[in-house]
From TrEMBL, chain A:
The gene is POP5. This is Ribonuclease P/MRP protein subunit POP5. One of its GO terms (cellular component) is multimeric ribonuclease P complex. Component of ribonuclease P, a protein complex that generates mature tRNA molecules by cleaving their 5'-ends. Also a component of the MRP ribonuclease complex, which cleaves pre-rRNA sequences. GO terms for molecular function: ribonuclease P RNA binding. It is found in: Nucleus, Nucleolus. Belongs to the eukaryotic/archaeal RNase P protein component 2 family. GO terms for biological process: rRNA processing; tRNA 5'-leader removal. Its main location: nucleus. InterPro entries: Pop5/Rpp14/Rnp2-like, RNase_P/MRP_POP5, Rnp2-like_sf. It comes from Acipenser oxyrinchus oxyrinchus.
UniProtKB/TrEMBL annotation, chain B:
InterPro entries: Pol/histidinol_Pase-like, RNase_P_p30. It comes from Acipenser oxyrinchus oxyrinchus. This is Ribonuclease P protein subunit p30. Component of nuclear RNase P and RNase MRP ribonucleoproteins. RNase P consists of a catalytic RNA moiety and about 10 protein subunits; POP1, POP4, POP5, POP7, RPP14, RPP21, RPP25, RPP30, RPP38 and RPP40. Within the RNase P complex, POP1, POP7 and RPP25 form the 'finger' subcomplex, POP5, RPP14, RPP40 and homodimeric RPP30 form the 'palm' subcomplex, and RPP21, POP4 and RPP38 form the 'wrist' subcomplex. All subunits of the RNase P complex interact with the catalytic RNA. Several subunits of RNase P are also part of the RNase MRP complex. The lineage of its organism: Eukaryota, Metazoa, Chordata, Craniata, Vertebrata. Residues 238-268 are annotated as: Disordered.
Length: 162, 268
């Protein structure tokens, strides 16, 4: 069966100013990444990544970003990501950094990694908790994130594995 | 993969900024970080001062992302040499350079590059990234440096900030790769702000842009960093076999060999 193979790049966006995370928009990220690829790899890079490049998932609260591109050209995209230094949103330039944490072949593998990663981040937050209530809520969050629940939900949905 | 290291974090007098940068490095997954004190001897009244006390910075160093150990912070000295008289500071007997864990040199002319590769007692040779290299690298001194265990360093933060710097960085590193074949290279950040740091896997990809092969790029952030660290440690020892430590309470002269060296000497 002929199948289009893609690579999904799971990235984390870090801002200098934590409040500007709320203004994260898919369009801003899309244009920023496309411009960075054009600057780093020229017309060839821009053309390669224009074929099947989309922002699949963006979480403004945690700053997690999922990008999709073709398997043949994912290195071009990956090598252009470190050169992004700011994102435009609502006419303002916010200095930021995009660091990639995982490369996967399907959305499901990225999802599995993201759940493990978020659990690790929650555990790292535990020592910094100020009060018992915060500690309790972090504990509950850690225990509640499990893949089994999500897989039951996900099997009813159609998976997009373009 | 192995431990990742970023051996160039520029030292600032602002402690909070430095702490921020180191915490970001720990969050990104770097196990070892070196605070770089840059000394430019051409400017007047510049002396090699004492390194910042690492214990004062953090009461408990931040844990590395993905591991359970805290981040290891070491001190590093970079001397920018533009004349031959500046090299006097870098001799083994110099008192100040012994206080630092790593010593690096940034040669500005071809003769000084030659001296640095052949005779100077350093661990890291920094390659110019912010301007077009005036001289070409020659194969003999580079090979001698590789044999001596000296590591060549590529700094990537100018490339992130500016487009012309990016061109100089890539062209200088490509010319180094042509001569040295990608051995003994490390890539480090030279970061002053936490946003200038990049994760280790991103840097391994940048290494591909700089002309390294895939295996060499991964080695550039892990095994070659460890090489440089060990080279710095052996500078404090006698031939890399014996390591002396000052014991505060007991006044007798005790010689202690670190565990790895002990095992080697025990073997027949």
């Amino acid at each position: 069966m002929v199948r289009f193979k893609s690579r999904y790049l799971l990235c984390e966006v870090c801002f200098a100013d934590p409040r500007s995370r709320q203004c994260l928009e898919e369009r801003a990220v899309f244009s920023a990444v496309r411009d960075a690829i054009a600057r780093a790899h020229g017309d060839y890079g821009a053309a390669c990544c224009a074929v099947s490049f989309t922002v699949k998932y963006l979480n403004a609260y945690t700053g997690i970003l999922l990008l999709r591109c073709r398997k043949e050209h994912y290195r071009l995209l990956w090598s252009a990501l470190p050169f992004i230094i700011h994102l435009e949103s609502r006419g303002q330039r916010q200095p930021c950094r995009i660091s990639s944490i995982h490369v996967g072949g399907t959305i499901r593998t990225c999802q599995r990694f993201l759940i493990r990663y978020n659990r690790q981040q929650l555990l790292r937050m535990l020592p910094g908790c100020q009060s018992e209530e915060e500690r309790e809520s972090v504990h509950r969050a850690v225990l509640s994130c499990s893949l089994k629940q999500l897989e039951e939900e996900g099997s009813s949905r159609d998976e997009d594995s373009d | 993969m192995a431990l990742f290291g970023d051996l160039n974090i520029v030292n600032t007098t602002d402690k909070r900024k430095l702490k921020n940068v180191i915490e970001t490095a720990a969050h990104l997954g770097y196990s070892t970080v070196a605070i770089n004190h840059v000394v430019n001897l051409q400017e007047k009244k510049q002396e090699i001062g004492k390194p910042t006390c690492v214990a004062e910075l953090f009461t408990s160093p931040p844990t590395v992302q993905g591991k359970s150990k805290p981040i290891k912070i070491i001190t590093r000295l970079t001397v920018v040499v533009s004349e031959a008289s500046h090299c006097n500071e870098l001799r083994t007997t110099s008192p100040r350079t012994r206080l630092y864990d790593l010593v690096a040199v940034h040669p500005k002319t071809e003769k000084l590059f030659h001296t640095a590769c052949m005779t100077l007692d350093v661990d890291i040779i920094e390659i110019i990234m912010t301007e077009k290299q005036q001289f070409h690298f020659k194969r003999p001194p580079v090979n001698v440096a590789i044999d001596r265990g000296i590591v060549f360093e590529l700094v990537y933060s100018p490339a992130i900030k500016d487009s012309t710097m990016r061109r100089y960085t890539i062209s200088n590193s490509l010319s180094l790769m042509n001569i040295g074949k990608g051995k003994n290279i490390i890539i480090s950040s030279g970061a002053e702000k936490p946003l200038e740091l990049r994760g280790p896997y991103d840097i391994a990809n940048l290494g591909l842009l700089f002309g390294l092969s895939e295996g060499d790029a991964k080695a550039a952030i892990s095994t070659n960093c460890r090489k440089a660290l060990l080279h710095g440690e052996t500078r404090k020892t006698a031939q890399g076999v014996v390591h002396t430590m000052k014991k505060t309470e007991v006044p007798e002269d005790k010689e202690e060999a670190p565990a790895s060296k002990r095992a080697r000497t025990d073997d027949p």
